[in-house]
């Protein structure tokens, strides 16, 4: 049955309208991965030299045993960010006499076809064969290789399980990232314990106690079955929804209910963001970028001009990151929007309202930067007004020129769906316009006047928002059929 699923996926790929584009992307990605593989292979071949240079006073085997666990912590973090979930369009099989175990087994087994599972063997394999085999023998070499494969498979399924759980609750991803960060800081920042010593506790004893290889094997098998039964229990859409019946609908958010029909549209947008991987990742990344100021504000050599950029970026990251793909998020049902009774002016007002709410929350989250001075918060507030007035209008203007659809179910890592020339052109006005206004005043010595002008322009655009909505609506009606045609190309 697994071969049948694989055959169906191949046919689906070759019969797709975008097969040519998909092949081109895969060729480019294949070349990049091959180059990366050569670098990783070189790292593996010279691992003994690198370990000897990093730990000149330690035995090579002892030093090696101390870094393996550190690698797997880093490996897990990279998997959470970059590894894609294996997918299969299961809906066509649900009404057929296909065993549920076959469908779930296919998804679980294809998860092993990841380059992340190859890297540990390529990196550590040469070292084990060159250093451990001559000294400790074939049995120890074998248990080392099996242990590394076991931990790699454990990381593989743990990362997939976390990402699948995060599809239902975005906080799980943040909690997992926080745990990994705290585990790293506990050693390298706070020095509460030594990851190197913990790593040697297992891999060092593996030399004299080969039976310890059972631990990574058991962990790998256990994590496989955790994934297997989780997928099996959530294979049908109604089972996923039945577990959340008690949850309050986003349409019942009191803040949104005050805005009538526009509030309902925003509530639907909130559902779209929370229920789909790629838009949700845009929201989650926005939360991570709230720490962006620490990269700049802790460096006294950087002047106030950088605060303009950082303030705009932190209070408007969602507008930039999510808004640049308007209206591609609605590509799958865009034709329905065109023929519905929804006024496009209300549709635009909903976008403005969504951006206003999220940007306001982002500004509130940046107020602790008052630690670097209240003027920093003032600049954030000025750029918050600029984002609400100028950047939202610019983003929605370029949205009328984006004809590329987005598959909401796909992740953001190495995903260029929806990316086109409009995204490249969008970055220039977003970054340059504030400086075009601010820098002349700065060079004349009137930085406060420059900030005031930025704030006044932002407020002026907010006050005249209805005028700009009418302009955007008129512009949209001249391009709606071209946008719809572009969204139909899968």
Number of helices: 24
Domain count: the total is 2
Report the major sheet: none
Please write the string of helix (H) and strand (E) elements.
Answer: HHHHHHHHHHHHHHHHHHHHHHHH
Structural class: mainly alpha
**How much strand?**
under 5%
Query: Judging from the principal axes of the Cα atoms, what is the shape?
Result: globular
Keywords: Membrane, Transmembrane, Transmembrane helix
Organism: Mucilaginibacter rigui
Pfam family, one: DUF5687
Transmembrane segments: 23-46, 61-82, 103-125, 131-154, 166-190, 210-231, 281-297, 309-331, 352-371, 377-399, 419-437, 443-463
Quick gist of this model?
With 490 residues, the protein is an all-alpha fold. It has helices spanning 2-14, 19-45, 47-54, 60-82, 91-94, 100-110, 119-136, 138-168, 170-188, 195-206, 214-233, 237-242, 254-257, 260-275, 277-288, 293-297, 304-323, 334-339, 344-365, 374-399, 421-443, 447-463, 465-477, 480-488. The chain crosses the membrane at residues 23-46, 61-82, 103-125, 131-154, 166-190, 210-231, 281-297, 309-331, 352-371, 377-399, 419-437, 443-463.
Give an overview of the whole structure.
By secondary structure, the chain is mainly α. It has two domains: 20-242, no CATH class; 258-488, no CATH class. It has helices at residues 2-14, 19-45, 47-54, 60-82, 91-94, 100-110, 119-136, 138-168, 170-188, 195-206, 214-233, 237-242, 254-257, 260-275, 277-288, 293-297, 304-323, 334-339, 344-365, 374-399, 421-443, 447-463, 465-477, 480-488. Helix 19 (344-365) crosses helix 23. The radius of gyration is 26 Å and the shape is globular. Mean pLDDT is 82; it is low at 237-251.
């Amino acid at each position: 049955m697994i071969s049948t699923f694989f055959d169906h996926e191949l046919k689906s790929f070759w019969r797709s309208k975008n097969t040519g584009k998909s092949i081109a992307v895969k060729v480019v990605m294949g070349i990049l991965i091959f180059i990366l593989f050569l670098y990783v292979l070189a790292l593996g071949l010279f691992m003994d030299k690198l370990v000897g240079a990093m730990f000149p006073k330690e035995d090579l085997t002892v030093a090696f045993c101390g870094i393996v666990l550190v690698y797997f912590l880093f490996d897990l973090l990279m998997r959470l960010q970059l590894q894609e979930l294996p997918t299969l369009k299961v809906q066509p099989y649900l009404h057929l006499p296909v065993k549920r175990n076959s469908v779930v087994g296919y998804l679980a087994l294809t998860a092993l076809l990841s380059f992340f599972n190859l890297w540990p063997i390529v990196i550590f394999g040469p070292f084990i064969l060159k250093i451990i085999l001559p000294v400790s023998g074939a049995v120890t070499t074998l248990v080392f290789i099996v242990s590394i494969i076991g931990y790699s498979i454990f990381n593989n399924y743990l990362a997939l399980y976390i990402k699948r759980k995060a599809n239902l609750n975005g906080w799980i991803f943040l909690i997992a990232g926080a745990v990994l960060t705290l585990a790293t800081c506990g050693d390298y920042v706070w020095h509460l314990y030594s990851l190197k010593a913990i790593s040697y506790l297992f891999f060092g004893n593996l030399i004299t106690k080969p039976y310890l290889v059972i631990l990574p094997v058991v962990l790998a098998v256990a994590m496989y079955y955790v994934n297997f039964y989780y997928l099996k229990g959530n294979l049908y859409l109604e089972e996923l929804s039945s577990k959340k019946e008690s949850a309050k609908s986003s349409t019942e958010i009191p803040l949104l209910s005050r805005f009538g029909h526009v509030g309902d549209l925003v509530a639907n947008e909130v559902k779209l963001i929370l229920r789909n991987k790629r838009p949700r990742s845009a929201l989650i990344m926005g939360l991570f970028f709230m720490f962006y100021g620490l990269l700049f504000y802790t460096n006294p050599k950087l002047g106030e001009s950088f605060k303009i950029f950082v303030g705009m970026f932190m209070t408007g990251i969602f507008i930039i990151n999510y808004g640049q793909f308007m209206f591609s998020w609605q590509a799958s049902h865009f034709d329905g929007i065109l023929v519905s009774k929804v006024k496009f002016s209300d549709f635009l007002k909903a976008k403005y309202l969504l951006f206003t709410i999220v940007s306001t929350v982002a500004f509130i989250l940046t107020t602790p930067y008052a630690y670097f001075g209240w003027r920093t918060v003032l600049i954030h507030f000025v750029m918050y007004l600029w984002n609400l007035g100028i950047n939202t209008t610019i983003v929605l203007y370029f949205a009328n020129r984006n004809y590329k659809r987005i598959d909401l179910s796909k992740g953001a890592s190495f995903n260029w769906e929806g990316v086109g020339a409009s995204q490249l052109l969008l970055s220039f006005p977003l970054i340059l316009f504030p400086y075009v206004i601010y820098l002349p005043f700065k060079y004349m010595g009137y930085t406060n006047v420059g900030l005031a002008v930025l704030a006044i322009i932002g407020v002026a655009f907010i006050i005249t928002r209805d005028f700009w909505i009418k302009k955007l609506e008129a512009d949209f009606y001249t391009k709606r059929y071209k946008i719809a045609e572009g969204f139909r190309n899968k």
